[in-house]
Design brief:
alpha+beta
Amino acid sequence: MLKTYSLTKDTLVVSSESNIKNSSVVYVYGDEREYIESSEHKYDFKIGNILTFDDQVAYDTMIDQNDEKSLIVSFLFPAVHEGGHLDNLTTSVVFLVFKNKLIIFTKQKLKFIPELLSNMVLRDVNNFVEEVLLKIMQKDFYVMLNDLRGVKEKIDDLDSEISTSGRLRPTFGDLLTLQKYMIALSTTYKANHKALDFIKKNFTTIDDINFSTKKIIDELYDTSDTMDRIILGYSQYLANLENMINNMISYQLNMIMKTLTEISIVLTIPAIIFGFWGINVHVPFEKSSYGVLAVLIISAILSLICWLLMRRKTYL
């Protein structure tokens, strides 16, 4: 699918797809193989391959026949879903940045991009490409920060579940999901930081960076550093939580083994007694009609005494 936007005064407005050559911003998503292949041939970049990168970013400069410089840069957007495979935790967003045109590529539609572009009011019309790209990254970082807040709530829920529930099997699924979040977000933050470094360094190859653009970049760096600190803290907490769960499992296993050991030792007493009364010699109660009952009572009493003594002596 294609969505095109034209710059009218200081506002981006949706335009007709038939006027794609004169559009200021083009958003390409889904199976637009023909347009992607055309762009690859025109700009000599494997955009399709870049879109498949889910753990790294791509960036480079281009020089056309008129010696005008442009940029290609991608960043990662987290797309973590419960039960998702590790290979599909993030999606790449690719930008072709020209002096007066911006082309955006994604494998699947990201709702926040067309919502952000529609009727976007720009501060600096002369450098609108830089401003649009940075605002998209700013929105992406805002979404990632909200994802972090969601992870905090999930961690709290997991903590409560461990405290109130004796069954740990469901907890492992929740813990695995949270660890997937950590992998996706951590990979995304590190990769996007590299893309941000490239943008800051190379925007001057298109035009002089202005104050508002520099301010947005500084805010993105601050947000990135904040998310790095938060993700580090959450990862350490989850690691400690995993150790605690393993300790709880070991404790429960030890309690089971302890109970089985108690049963084995206590049952040894009746076995000894029954064996004693079964030998081919004269023994008490051998001629009594209540001999079997007496032996059972004696066995039960001795077993109980043995169990109480071992409990008191903390052998079990």
